[in-house]
Every structure is written in structure tokens, then in C-alpha cells.
Write a structure and sequence with these properties.
The protein is 51% helix and 18% strand. The chain is of the alpha+beta class. It has 2 domains: 5-44 and 263-386, no CATH class; 61-241, no CATH class. The protein has a 6-stranded mixed barrel. A hairpin with a 7-residue loop joins strand 3 (86-100) and strand 4. The protein starts with a helix and ends with a helix.
């Protein structure tokens, strides 16, 4: 079998080939990491949304994201009961408080507290349903075992003692003793380092300054009917002091906040673009130098009758070879970095098949674009001038 001219030219100078592979791999790693962090940002932000057993959700118009929720009247939720398709409604209370590290009483850290009515199974989370009866006791909470380690060795202490006492400061200089009676798993986000789940009554005990009936999320579970149709009916007779979402719309609303209303969403997109540009520059330099060094050979082939299309094919073959050779180590290194990032940050960073193919196609596009720019030098090649 004939060895392609493109491969022979690339491997002629092995050092330059290795430099090109390293540059492309770096670009691939950069794109993978930025896309991975961006995906982790969006996926982690909607973990709570996906865990709620509801079809329609009510929010205050002033709420912009899970970390910036505003209260509204619980009466709007009860008004939704007028629809015959509603199976049940339940309020969700959300707030941040200071958690005292049980292993180091001098360390306090913000923690996210979720309060709900234990009459309904509203969470699809490991550990919540099993501990539902315990949450009916006063001053008890469930601790998120996927929280950051800065909250202390809570999981180990609880498993060795089956219960754990600590304190919570509700941000108004009022501390309250609470007991951890169980564990559940939700996960951290870019704005939330840890979570507690408790009953709505215990939530109001912790946040004694809060008024009962002012909630952050209203959950509506339907027994029949299309959520989109029920949503439209609710919008017609509920006042405009609440926002009404289906679950998919609420998830989209949350992601849109992080994508457009925060700097971090833009930075990750910019990082992907920078990785693409770096790769284009590296591949262009390699291919341009290769073309320049072989101008005489190309001119000779031109006089022999080879058309410009043939030279384009050679350069594009080189681009494809570089893309494949650079992608493989970049993919392997990025996969390892994903595991390290997940273990360190506890964010949902994982390699997906969709992202694998997307970055591979981006790499091919990047190398082909660099090849198109580099091959322009051949367009005006005149054998008479070269010889």
C-alpha cells in the first residue's frame, strides 16, 4: 500500500510533529476543561429542580436563581388547588444560615437550608424518604453527604454516633441547636457549598424572623393533564405577583441566569473560543512552514501537471492526521483531569459521549481552518518564479 504524501511530509521532521501534537493536545484539553466546567455549572445549578416531585412551580417575580430567591405569599399556591387536575400542592422554604463545624466550633460556614412539608414526598433524593418520620421531630435536619468537607467530618461523626449535635446561626445573631438525624445526597453548586433538609416547621424555628406563609417555591403536582396547558390556565387567573413554570421551563430559567447574567458563564465560553484559537495558530504555523519548505517540490509537481486541488488534498490530509494525533492524548489527559476536578470540587464533572464527539469535530474544524489559511500560499505559486 502506498504511504500518503501528507504523512511522509509530517514525519520527515519528527520534532516539529511532536510540537504540533503537543500544541493541539493543549488546545483539546483547554476546550474539554472549559466545556466540562460549563456543563458542571449548569448541571449542578439544577440538581434541586430535577429532584422535586412536581409538574408546575410558582416563584416570586423577583427571584432570579436558586441562590437569589425572594418570598411570595403561600396563598397563590392554595389558589392553584381550584384546578381539578391538581393532585397536591406543597411549599418549599429556602434560606442560607451559618453552620458551626462540629469538629471545630470556631469555624462557621454558610449552608443552604431547604424546608418542606413532610406530609408529601416531594424529593426524589436518596435518604430523604427513609428519614421522613425523623424530620417530624423538632430541631432536626438531614445533612447532605455530598457537601464540601469544610463543614467538618459530619458524615463520619454521624455514622459513628447515629446522631450529631451542632448549632446554626440564622444570620440575625440568633443561634439554635440542631440535631443531624440522617443523611441524604444532593450535591454542591457554584453558589452552594452544602445543604440541609428539614421540615417547614423546623425551618421556621431556625429562621425565627421569617413569617409563616411566605415561601420561595410552590410545588404543584398534577394527577392528570398536560403541564403546559395547566400552566396557561393558572396564568389566566393567578395575579402577576408570581411566576409560573413547568419543570423544564424552570430548569431553563436557572441555566439562563448562569449563562447570561453572571461573568462565569461568559468566561467558560470564552475559554472554549481561546482554546480553538490557540489550536488554529499552532496548526497554521506547522502547515505554513511545511508548505513554505516544500514550495520547490510543489512547483515541480505543478509543472508535471498536478492541479491545485491535489495540493489542497495533501494539506487537508495533514490537517486530519494532526487533528487525530493531537486529540487522542488531549482526550486521555482531560479524562484524568475530570476525575481529579470531581474529587476536589464535588461538582458533577464527567466525560460524556456527546462532548467527546463535539470536541473531536471542533478539533478537525480547527485543523482544517488552519489548513485553509496555510494553503493560500500555494495559490499564487509560479514555477518560473521559484526556479
Amino acid at each position: 500500500m502506498k504511504i500518503p504524501l501528507a504523512w511522509l511530509q509530517l514525519k520527515h521532521q519528527k520534532t516539529r510533529l511532536l510540537v504540533a501534537i503537543a500544541g493541539i493536545s493543549f488546545s483539546v484539553i483547554l476546550m474539554f476543561m472549559q466545556l466540562g466546567f460549563q456543563s458542571a455549572l449548569f448541571d449542578s445549578a439544577v440538581l434541586l429542580h430535577k429532584s422535586l416531585n412536581g409538574d408546575i412551580f410558582l416563584l416570586s417575580p423577583r427571584s432570579t436563581a436558586l441562590i437569589a430567591m425572594k418570598s411570595f405569599s403561600e396563598r397563590r399556591l392554595y389558589q392553584a388547588l381550584g384546578d381539578k387536575n391538581v393532585e397536591f400542592i406543597t411549599p418549599i422554604y429556602l434560606g442560607f444560615a451559618q453552620w458551626k463545624n462540629p469538629a471545630n466550633p470556631l469555624k462557621w460556614r454558610n449552608i443552604h437550608i431547604i424546608g418542606f412539608d413532610t406530609e408529601y414526598s416531594v424529593f426524589n433524593l436518596p435518604g430523604v424518604e427513609q428519614n421522613m418520620d425523623k424530620l417530624k421531630e423538632p430541631d432536626v435536619v438531614l445533612f447532605d453527604l455530598a457537601s464540601r468537607p469544610e463543614f467538618g467530618p459530619v458524615v463520619n461523626l454521624f455514622q459513628s454516633q447515629t446522631s450529631l449535635l451542632t448549632e446554626i446561626d440564622n444570620m440575625s445573631n440568633a443561634t439554635r441547636k440542631i440535631e443531624v438525624v440522617g443523611l441524604f445526597k444532593l450535591g454542591t453548586t457554584f453558589g452552594i457549598d452544602g445543604n440541609l433538609i428539614t421540615s417547614h416547621l423546623n425551618f421556621l424555628r431556625i429562621f425565627s424572623q421569617r413569617k409563616k406563609g411566605l415561601i420561595e417555591v410552590g410545588v404543584i403536582k398534577l394527577k392528570s393533564g398536560n403541564p403546559a396547558n395547566i400552566e396557561q390556565k393558572l396564568q389566566q387567573y393567578l395575579p402577576n405577583d408570581v411566576q409560573i413554570f413547568t419543570k423544564e421551563e424552570w430548569i431553563k430559567f436557572e441555566k439562563q441566569y448562569w449563562m447570561t447574567s453572571t461573568a462565569i458563564g461568559f468566561i467558560f465560553s470564552l475559554g472554549v473560543a481561546m482554546g480553538l484559537i490557540v489550536g488554529i495558530v499552532v496548526v497554521y504555523q506547522i502547515l505554513y512552514t511545511d508548505v513554505a519548505n516544500h514550495l520547490k517540490e510543489y512547483a515541480t509537481l505543478t509543472t508535471m501537471g498536478y492541479r491545485h486541488r491535489y495540493f489542497l488534498t495533501v494539506v487537508f490530509q495533514e490537517s486530519l492526521i494532526l487533528a487525530c494525533l493531537g486529540y487522542i492524548p488531549g482526550f486521555l489527559i482531560a479524562s484524568g483531569l475530570y476525575k481529579i476536578a470531581h474529587q476536589t470540587t464535588l461538582l458533577p464533572i464527567a466525560m460524556t459521549q456527546q462532548r467527546t464527539w463535539f470536541v473531536f469535530l471542533l478539533t478537525i474544524f480547527m485543523c482544517f481552518l488552519a489548513g485553509i489559511i496555510a494553503v493560500r500560499k500555494l495559490q499564487d505559486v509560479d514555477p518560473a518564479d521559484i526556479f
